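Step 1: inspect the first sequence and its tokens.
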Amino acid sequence: MMMGEKNLLIREANGMGLFDKIRGSSGGEPLGELATPEAFAAIALAAVASDGYLSEEEARSMPLILSRMKLYESYSDEMMCRLFDRLLATLQKEGVGALFASAKVSLTPELRETAFTVAADLVLADGVFADEEKQFLSELEAALEISPELVQKITDVMLIKNRG
């Protein structure tokens, strides 16, 4: 499945949303250790799709946003596209819970905080904070073991950043 498909609705054949798996209804077992860039990108992709939809614009923006990070400086455009295609397939097959469990193992505490910050920025970028997005950030906070104090600071800054 190509990420560039317009308004891709992320749903499984049984009608369960990918993000229903966070709560352990299926999936949730670690997939094994992911490469650090893959784990970071997985969290960013999950954030963008946390409302259940991945639009063409969101899909195109992900590689651009991440390509500015040192973590991806050696990735070509083609490598980034392949990475996101692979992650989307994994999300659809195994669920977010399994992906988070594996991503958590691959991220240093500093990158966990950075991953949460990027996720919060992506979720809050459109100025709409849907219930699904709030739930996603709450579960991401727990999965990455981010302190509530830091979460509040990050959320406050991202809300200010994305006002205009």
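Step 2: inspect the second sequence and its tokens, then contrast the two.
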Amino acid sequence: MNFISKRLSPPVLKVSVLGFTLMEVAVALLILSMVLASSLQLVGQYADERVLMRERFLANRVAWNRLLEKYQELEGWHSRGLLTTRRKEGSEIQGGTDWQWKLGVEEAMGQQLYRFEATVVKGSKKRPSSALAVFLIDDSRRE
């Protein structure tokens, strides 16, 4: 009986899996390198954006400082001789960086309505980092 059962059973194939083929490893490394390269690029872009956002934030603070000083002067909150808004340009250190600012004034619609624009440039750059404008009534500019 033992002899018959051995004869009727199908032959056993010995299949051994030793590992991945060279092609499979190469494809896996290619996919991994693409994922790592794109993630490094994203991290680099994130770091660059943080630097630009910080620079823009500080430049906006400098511009708002100039415009608020002008507003305070026009509202009579300070004596006119003590403020720096009589100057049309100057520099300010904000966040450890030297910022150059210019305050421009032009007539707007209305009898005493003027547009005050503060433009801020970082160091020796030519392109403004910030340009903010506000419309104010200036009684002292009557003609």
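Step 3: confirm your contrast with the notes below.
The helical segments are 2-8, 22-74. The chain has a mean pLDDT of 83.
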